[in-house]
Amino acid sequence: MTSQTEGGGIGPPLLDWRDSSHWSHTEKPCRYCGRPTNLRDSKRSPAHKMCAERALAQQAADAADAYQIGHH
Predict the structure, then answer these.
(1) Burial 61-70 (b: 16+ CB within 10 A, else e)
(2) Residue 43's closest CA among 21, 63, 26, 27?
(3) Is this model's pTM higher than 0.85 or not?
(4) DSSP characters over 25-38
(5) Which of 19, 41, 57, 66 is the most buried (most CB within 10 A)?
């Protein structure tokens, strides 16, 4: 079963943002958009939830496209 994510993608979220490891008391610029955030991605880099999930979805789409091209 797939579900609509907040970012508009299909499927379950790839990161569990409820985990405290995604929070820092220090604001830093998001690695994707540059705006300040207290959130951290799975590698502890500053990233908004929406920005990180959008980037992961794009990576998955790019990988799927490359797979399709390689199998034609």
Answers:
(1) eeeeeeeeee
(2) 21
(3) no
(4) EEEEE-TTT--EEE
(5) 41
Q: Identify the DSSP state of 18.
A: T
- The band of 2, judged by pLDDT with boundaries at 50, 70 and 90, is very low
User: What confidence tens digit (pLDDT) does each residue in 14-45 have?
Assistant: 678 888 989 999 999 999 999 999 999 988 99
Cα distances from 4 to residues 10, 13, 45, 53, in angstroms, run 5, 9, 25, 13
Residues in the chain: 72
- Tally the C-alpha atoms within 13 A of residue 57's C-alpha that lie toward its C-beta: 16
Q: How far apart are alpha carbons 43 and 22 in whole angstroms? A: 9
